[in-house]
Amino acid sequence: MTRRLICGVLPDSPELLKFQIYCSKDGLTEAQLYTKFCSILRDTLPKTVQVKDTHKNRYLDDRAPDISIFPKDIHLTQGTFIHTIIEVKAVGTGLTMDTRGQVLDCIERLAACQQHGHSFTALLTNINENVFLRVDYSQNEPKTLVYDPCELRQALSFLGEIITTPDEQPAIYPFPEALGTCQAFLGRTHSSAVASFWLHLLPKDLVTVSPLGCRTEVAVKVSTGTDPAIRKEIEILKRLGDNVSIPRLVFYDQPHSMFGMLPVGNPVRLDSLLFDSFLARAVLNNVLDWLLFLHDNSDIHRDLRWGNIITSQGRAIIIDFNHSYIIPSPNSPPKAVMYQGGYCCAPPPSSL
User: Which of 323, 76, 306 is CA-nearest to residue 190?
Assistant: First the structure.
């Protein structure tokens, strides 16, 4: 589906005129346009965003958008935080179906990083001709809309509108400013988000469980809603103590809506296990040892899957205890627990 682009037109400015004169030179490559175009974008777009040349940064599942725009207080180029992307072609290069397909491919990967998002819009430009492509994910089937080509001033004006459109805002997760700059975004669930931070001296309003002897990268999990699962996970990690097969609790906040843990591991890569029998055996042994430890402590994880197994220093570590169930002692009164389904979930307590 195509549609005429209806929006304002940015007025001429000395910087924009200089840029258009620069682009009229013969033989300019795409790489030569990136820096100049980023400068124009920074001058014209709202100051709430930052513009970065990312043509060498394959942050979208091995794809590197030429230019990326994201909130100014985010210091990490990652699909989770991106407002919009721009693909720049050399002046005079046709904006063909192939180049449009490249943009749609990037939008699909961007949408996979922001599963809460309703729509995503990107710009394909050769400076003289500018085409916006939008994919709406609010329905069961994605709907693609391609806008008619427009001139540069109108494209810059529409970019400003995209950045303020509610349906195209990246999620902002409630990590406290006191933790400093986010080192890496590690993942999210429907009710929480996890990122890593380099920390040493912890903020005074946090409850310290395991002091950090030096500057250390810590995984921080924060609640994104009112789900009490974070409080439950904190209590379970406190109860289980320090064990090499489970995360070590470093700190938590008083409302029990956030906690820090070690180590910051790497996801298990199934293709690595298929071709490395030694690693596969080590991961399996670690997981089985961990299960014995948990069950000896009356804890059943109930969500054991590859996404909840990480590796660190050659060991497999189980994470994400928000579905765990503590088996009550024989003398405790019966307590009903909702059967939630899942991967390796325990049956209801009456069957235990």
Answer: 323
Per-residue pLDDT at 329 = 77
Cβ pair 258, 226 in contact under 8 A: no
Which residue among 209, 240, 262 closes a domain?
262
The DSSP element (H or E) to which 287 belongs, if any, is helix 277-296
Q: What is the pTM of this model?
A: 0.69
Same domain assignment for residues 249 and 298: no
* Residue 329 backbone dihedrals phi, psi, to 5 degrees: -65, 160
Domain that holds residue 13: 2-168
With tokens 């072609």, the residue in question is 89
What CATH number should be reported for the domain holding residue 8? Answer: 3.90.1570
CATH of the domain at 210: 3.30.200.20
The SS3 assignment for 334 reads coil
Report yes or no: 259 and 230 within 8 Å, Cβ to Cβ: yes
Quickly state the pLDDT bin for 75 (edges 50, 70, 90): confident
Closest Cα to residue 25, out of 95, 89, 94, 91? 91
- State the distance between the two ends of the chain, measured CA to CA, in whole angstroms: 57
pLDDT tens-digit readout, 178-203: 898 788 888 887 788 899 999 998 98
